[in-house]
Amino acid sequence: MTSSVVDYENLMTTSFSDANNSRPASGVLPRWKRKQLEQSKSQNENLGNAQLVVGASKMDSSKQSNAQNSTSGCRFIPNRASMDIDRCSHSFRASESLDESTLSSDDEAKAAHLSNEILGTDEATSHRILSFKDKAPAPKGDTVNNLKVLYSASGYSSKSSNASKLVNRVIPSAPARILDAPDILDDYYVNLLSWSDTNVLAVALSQTVYLWNAASGDIQELCSYEDSNSDTYVSSVSWVQEGGAHLAIGTSEGNTQLWDVQAQKLLRTMDGHSGRVGSLSWNRHILSSGGRDAVVVNHDVRVARHNVASLTHHTQEICGLSWSPDGTTLASGSNDNLLCIWDATTSSSSRPRFSLTDHQAAVRALAWSPHERNLLASGGGTADRTIKFWNTQTGSLLNSIDTGSQVCALQWNPHEKEILSSHGFAQNQLSLWKYPTMAKIKDLTGHESRVLHMASSPDGCTVVSAAADETLRFWDVFAAPESKSTGKRGAPDRIGSSKGKISRTMHIR
């Protein structure tokens, strides 16, 4: 009889959940159990009487302290508020009848369901059997996702966000100054603009060469061919690299002249071409000239026998010439769509280092990078419309970008890795690009005809453009470094009264 009573008591004890253990079970209990229940009951009554005098504020503070203590302890205490007690109890009781050795297909499904509920992997259930903390609150609408910001810095980010990060300066949309340049030739194969390191701009207008002092605004006529021959005109101008005391002038008669600007005196006339001289480029004492006769002539201006080399690889008019900054390489572009790379030591019988045939139109625009050695940018005409970048040491094409219109001239930013291009139909704009991504930063519009010529100021901040609409426009497009910039950022002090605003249009002569 005694063993039956003990089995009955054990059965009754294990058949109820923890929530019912606090209430006395029905039937005969041992004396020690009844005594334990009486003591527990008296303690609960005393505790309940003490809690009645505690205010609402005291209860809130105690809950917060309990929550902090539970999270800072060394045990994992389940959060009953986030659990469904009844459903959890049912799940556990249903699993007690499962025997791993005799699992049927239905029992296996029940076991899998129980496992999902314990781990919280079942999307259909909104609770876990053992939940130790509440779910994280949903983020607000303006919350920044740090991971998204981190991984959106690649090329997959939007164009608008990239455009806003291309430059950290303000680029004026309007020119800082406009000069009237009447009778400037509308010819793609001549080069009529050059800016010296002494801040004097040389402009060829038909048969006359004018000098405009950017610091004082004075205009001076250097030479004119109106009296000698009505058909003679100036086809190219180029300042000597250092000092700004000498100006080279190419004429339609095939002559290359050297002028002393301060004395306004013609020093010498050099031949070597049977057609007009459309392009000029200096390399210290060597002056290279390109003519309509498809010949590039290197003149040593120090000696009487000036012709030191005649380069004859092109088949049509030379319209672009440019020496590299280190003076070791000469680039020549022609109407035959060729871009040739010449060594400084090349003789008349030598061939170019590279003859590049990737352009599909005349190659006029040439610009060496001031940031990377052996990096050359070239621009093609109407049938090509591309800007190409070359490694002149290996002859490899690094990049090519289709601009959508004729490329007339190129200018590098000496302070940052940017390049400015001028174009023809249909917008006649100047376009600023970020190198090497070639993302367009800004378009500068205002010219009414194709922008044939560009030149940069000595400080590298201002670029002047000359177009067939007979105007010169000065753009504050390149900003000096912060440590060197003075006054309004992006506006050079040497421009004088033109700084930061458009002055009235004036004639250059």
Structural class: alpha+beta
Query: In the CATH hierarchy, what is the class of the domain at 174-507?
Result: Mainly Beta
Count of separate DSSP helical elements = 7
Q: Would you tell me the overall average pLDDT?
A: 80
Strand order of the largest sheet: 26-27-28-1-29
* CATH architecture grouping of the domain at 174-507: 7 Propeller
Q: Strand fraction band?
A: 25-35%
Number of strands: 29
Fraction of residues in helices?
10-25%
| Low-confidence regions | 16-26, 146-161, 484-505
How far the N terminus sits from the C terminus, by CA atoms, comes to: 132 Å
CATH topological fold name of the domain at 174-507: Methylamine Dehydrogenase, Chain H
Q: What is the CA-atom radius of gyration, in angstroms?
A: 43 Å
Largest sheet, in brief, is: 5 strands, mixed
Task: Walk me through the structure.
- The chain is of the alpha+beta class.
- The chain has a domain at 174-507: YVTN repeat-like/Quinoprotein amine dehydrogenase (Methylamine Dehydrogenase, Chain H), CATH 2.130.10.10.
- 18% of the residues lie in helices and 31% in strands.
- It is elongated.
- Mean pLDDT is 80; it is low at 16-26, 146-161 and 484-505.
Helix and strand layout, with pairings?
Blueprint: H1 2-14, H2 31-51, H3 56-72, H4 85-96, H5 105-119, H6 146-151, H7 159-164, E1 177-180, E2 193-195, E3 200-205, E4 208-213, E5 219-224, E6 234-239, E7 246-251, E8 256-260, E9 265-270, E10 277-283, E11 286-291, E12 296-300, E13 307-311, E14 318-323, E15 329-334, E16 339-343, E17 354-356, E18 363-368, E19 375-380, E20 386-391, E21 396-402, E22 407-412, E23 418-423, E24 430-434, E25 439-444, E26 451-456, E27 463-467, E28 471-475, E29 506-507
Parallel strand pairs: 1-29
Antiparallel strand pairs: 1-28, 2-3, 3-4, 4-5, 6-7, 7-8, 8-9, 10-11, 11-12, 12-13, 14-15, 15-16, 16-17, 18-19, 19-20, 20-21, 22-23, 23-24, 24-25, 26-27, 27-28
